[in-house]
Amino acid sequence: MKEFFKKIGRVFVRGCIYTYCKIVYRVKIIGKENVPVEGPVIFCGNHRTYLDPPLIVVTAGRHMRFMAKEELKKNPLFALLGVLFEGIYVKRDSKDISSLKTALKTLKNGGCIGLFPEGTRNGFEKNEGTIKNGAAYMALKTGAQIVPIGILGTAKPFTKNAIIYGEPLDLSEFANKKVEKEYEDKVSNLLKEQILLLSSKEI
Length: 203
Fold this sequence. Notes:
The chain is an alpha/beta fold.
């Protein structure tokens, strides 16, 4: 019964956020046909504002569990979204790997995960273009597909904004190989290239 009400809540909240983004932020959705309709998927995009996570969640067309910093639970709105959409909270600067285990289990069960490989808002700029290997590791470990995402615009009301879903990364060369840092780095760099490419397009 509890899960039933969660599903009803997700439908309602997803509809409200989608309508809000379309009207207030004039969000254009591009490339949704690139999203696999089944199987485990890791959604990875550039991170500009707090609007980005719910924007991906309500436009991807797949139910996903978003990985986010634990501090967001202090915000009533994000705490509610975390409950409805089964958010996975990450303890930064901690050796706790429970969030990673939860994400891997979700993918192995055919579910979807959303995250920002920059690690923080505007992380590519703040961290001299570095990217974290979490998405690459999980993809190599579980065989999940990675869908790169570009989010464009100023995220200011009544300005043009867009979300672009790219084609899943071709990771065939890494199939059946042991997960090693060398391969993680290669996948991460490929992911970074695609995110930067998508997020640099004109609306």
